[in-house]
Amino acid sequence: MNDLSKTPPLSWPGSTVSIDDLIDQAERSRQVLFRVRGDMLAPEAKKVAPVFSGAQVARLCGIDMSQFNYRVSKGDLPAGVVRSTRRGREFTLPEARAWGKAYFAPRQRPAGASACTITVANFKGGVTKTSTAINLAQGLSLRGHRVLCIDLDPQGSLTTLFGFLPGVEIAEEETVGALCHGEQTSIEYAIRPTYWDGVDLVPATSALFAAEFVLPARQLKEKGFPFWDVLNRALVKARQDYDIIVIDTPPALSYLTSNALVAADGIIVPMPSNALVFASSAQFWDLFSDLFASLRDSHGLKKAFAFIHVLLVNKADANDVAAAAVRKWILAAYSDKVLPVEMPATRVANTSAAEFGSIYDIVRYEGSAKTYQRAREAYDRLVELIEESVLGMWHNPAQKGEG
After folding, report:
1. Is 87 exposed, middle or buried (0-12, 13-18, 19+ CB in 10 A)?
2. Against a cut of 0.85, is the pTM above it?
3. Helices (H), 108-254
4. Whether pLDDT at 33 is above 70
5. DSSP 150
């Protein structure tokens, strides 16, 4: 007998569901979510950063074990802790990041340069925007960068992946909502540390839906109010405090998404090899271009992006003929905007997401080592490619557009 046999019977035809019933349902859902998180994150009931082996740190830095052991012997970088001869050295996340920062020193933010703001956007839901955002943020942090993540999606999926429960542990005034209401003008009030050293977060909650009413209302009441520029203006100080800012957006051209696009120096558009997603992407580019053309013509907005990348996401198996055809369409349509890497269809990403995690949260994968390695290498390559684009902006200030 399966679990479905234990569920209560369906409502009879003609029965009604009252508002009180909806309130009860919301409470039951909330309680189950608490239990799920407790199971996934036990025994801490909060997210804990992974511990890295010496081999993993060496791989992060792109060196072999002999070079790694030599550098440990020099004593100028964290030596980790040897807990057993079988497991070798173990490194905390801050220690691993110290190694990454040392080995990627030429790729750090130059003095005087401001943070590169990257918006992950697509008006279609379920295209891996959030997993792209968190993996990009964590991967960049492992290379020594200080990253700020901003969750603009009222569903709060990015916030959940960082171990916070939207609507339960996050209030509207702790999100960008206070900026939208005009109660704050700089984003520092909403920034909080996360379990992942080097990555801070501005969380989201369902109350952010109010922004879609608050911002146009202010536009009517306040003469000359730049509804599209609220977030951009709020990031002035953060752009000096962080190296990279990653923004996750809702699946719609909302007021919040418009703010994220205007604030961006670079944009990543995840694109699964799916015919319906490809068809809807034309709408994305139409609305995207219409928005900026309108702001340029009516408000004199000057804007240029350092980069716009389309990220191929393979959600089908290798024998899916239709997916292969869609990949050809994407390459034909977006040509040089398509990144030379494809996120693979593996169970690794699905499993880590189901456990409130990312590919970088996994230290020991229980499945096929090759499967994990393929997924990890794809995300490492994505991080490397995006870092190249960021470096291009830092070393060529002419690429940085005006918001």
Report:
1. exposed
2. yes
3. 129-142, 157-161, 177-181, 211-221, 230-234, 238-241
4. no
5. E
